[in-house]
Amino acid sequence: MIRPRWQKVFSDLWSNRTRSLLVIASIAVGLFAIGVILMNYLVLQADMRTGFLKVNPANIYLQTSLVNEDTLKSVATVPGVQQAMGIRTVRLRVLNSKGEWQSIDLKAVANLETMPINQISLQEGRFPGEGEIVIDRNKVDELSARIGDMVTIELASGKTRNLRLVGITIDLTIGSFSGGGGGFFQAPMQGYLTRDTLKQLDLAQPYRYNGIMVRLTQNESDFIQAAAVEIANKLENNGVSVTSTRTSRSDVHPNSILIETIVVVLIVLGMLTVFLSGSLVTNTLQALLKQQTQQIGIMKSIGASQWQVAEVYMALLLVFGLLAFAIAMPLAHLVSFVMLEFLADSLNFVLEGRRLVMEVVALQAALALLMPQIAAWVPIWQGTRISVQEALSGIQQSHKKHHASKTVQKKTWRPLGVARRISKPLIISLRNTFRRKGRLALTLLTLSLGGAIFIATFNVQVSLNEFIDRLSNYFLADVNITLQRPYRIERIEQIVKQVPGVGQVEAWAVARAELIMDDGLSGERVSLLAPPVNSPLIKPILIEGRWIREGDENAITLNELFTLRYPQLRLGDTIHLNVNGKDTAWTIVGFFQLAGRNGGYTAYTSPKYLSSLVGLPNSTSVYRVVSDRGRLSPRQQQELANQIEAHLAQEDIAISDINTGSYISSITTEGFATLTAFLLFLAVLTALVGSIGLAGTMSMNVMERTREIGVMRAIGASNRVLMRMVLVEGMLIGLLSYAIGAALSFPISQVLSDSICYSIFGAPSVFGFTINGFVLWFGVMLVLAFLASFLPASNAARLTIREVLAYE
User: Fold this and answer.
1) Which has fewest Cβ within 10 Å: 215, 470, 483, 742?
2) Cβ-count burial 363-388 (b if 16+ within 10 Å, e if not)
3) CA distance linking residue 543 with residue 565, whole number of Å
4) pTM of the complete model
């Protein structure tokens, strides 16, 4: 036999199924949101780390002159070295699906299938033999070739070779040694082949290596740096030229920064969704307790204490929470792993299979049990403390109703009565909207915050795009050319200017460099660039100090990544760079903003000084080209690049890489699509919570006005009039929430944008604004308000006078 307490709980649950479903749905949406966010974060964090460790990633990567197996064996004898592996890397070009040449890094080792370090795996196909190639999944879609087709490679000499594509690989280490979080997205296409195939690419000494990967016995950063210095010194003492030394921890996935930097924002928004879903619980219990005042009085009259009465309603909330958990937990699990399977390719990790994450299940269960109780505790305590006399007589309730009605009439609706053109039903709708001010406030809070976050998501996306657009100040050229080797500047300028549409050609000095700190440790690669002084093709964003001037020699400006990693650096300090094997001293004259943590170390200096330092005073391999027609569209830039490439080929000038300014800007934006997708996902959830809250409010309003509706029907009100009254009330609440949400979206947009930009770039955002979010949310809000009001309006219209008279 079910105890009377539970009989009442199930009766309340079943007697108003619409109300129960709305409360359960509201709680479930909050649990679903926090479940998906935490599930994605925890699985990404675990699987990125686990999968990365499985491939035995290198701690040190040294670019060297050509070395043999004996040299590798000597590296393996250095204390702390666990394994050493040689690799031959060459950057050539491959013909893509658009019929254009793009860069590809080709890598060859002794045996691709048994690589001891930086192991690759097959997604499909097989490992290559002689004359064959496998390509990493990251950018394989940019080729028109599929497994079994031929891939055309352009050699350094300008000749072409065809290699058969036999497999698609997964290389989790792409971007490990880039110096920042964006290395994976900025890396060119990756191809893997055997050393025997190198002979077909006309490479001298194909069985020697130009790179050494080292795995250490310890993973601490200081130990790695010290080992890198010792290995580099040993190689150079043996006559090997070390052109670059880079280090990395073996437990940090290259793309983990994109997850770690945004998780706090996402979790905060997820918890906000849970909070908003709790507001409907508060509203529902307030209305339910108001409706059941006499029932509370009866329970107290037969001996029930306030705590015992409160326990009845807390038990009802417990059932609501359990049902919501039963819906949200499996749904969040399903959706999370669908999203994770999609993210596996875009963030370059291997999903370790579907499984329950007990931490998430436990949190969802805890929230399901506690959140409704916390949200409804105040109305439960206030509603159950009423005395038996007040509950049974209704004196206090009537007094409050009379007082509230009188106050509203005096302060609010008297001016409306003067406007005789306003119909009576409309006046009643306006009055009813503000009748329950507490309920209205919670409903507006829920719907307004949902709208504000929805609008802010679009503004944040614009802010990110505008921040990235500022980076294009460093890539103002229409076409960027890197040649296979340095050529005399006058010759290249003369050749390129012969191409129709070319207006200006700039030669930039460049050099390979490594940062050397005061303790003698080195390894961080630095991109050292030197455009002409006062070049119009670069507009730096200075943070502190100045830019390079005419007459500067060893002056240098550094991007903000230097200050993020080495905060002790100041203007006027001296830093040491290993430039082409030479230890050189530089004076810091400025710091500029680039891509923060999402890029590598970049520095600018004087072209004259750098050219003399590397022994190429009148030659370089890097050129920037500007059209004579002003700023070109991406398509026009690509057409100009194709013409320049063809013209250089006629002059037997070997090209290492050629791309457009718009292409360089576009690859910088990769990786942020995931972030904006998550934000939009949360925006939709908050909007859903808001609409559920509005539907609940309208249902409760109609339920409380059952007798009022009956009186109106008795005096001749039609179904159409009753429906219009409820719909007008719902639409008015929707419009009020839109106005509040639109105002709130500005500070929320700024906070979200700054949080994300500080996390990823280490700099404040550029506030972005778009009307799209406001317009779209206005349309969504109107639809949600109509749908949330339509069912209660229909219920109101269906009420008969008989049902009203029987209503308690």
Assistant:
1) 470
2) ebeebbeebbbebbbebbeebbebee
3) 16
4) 0.72
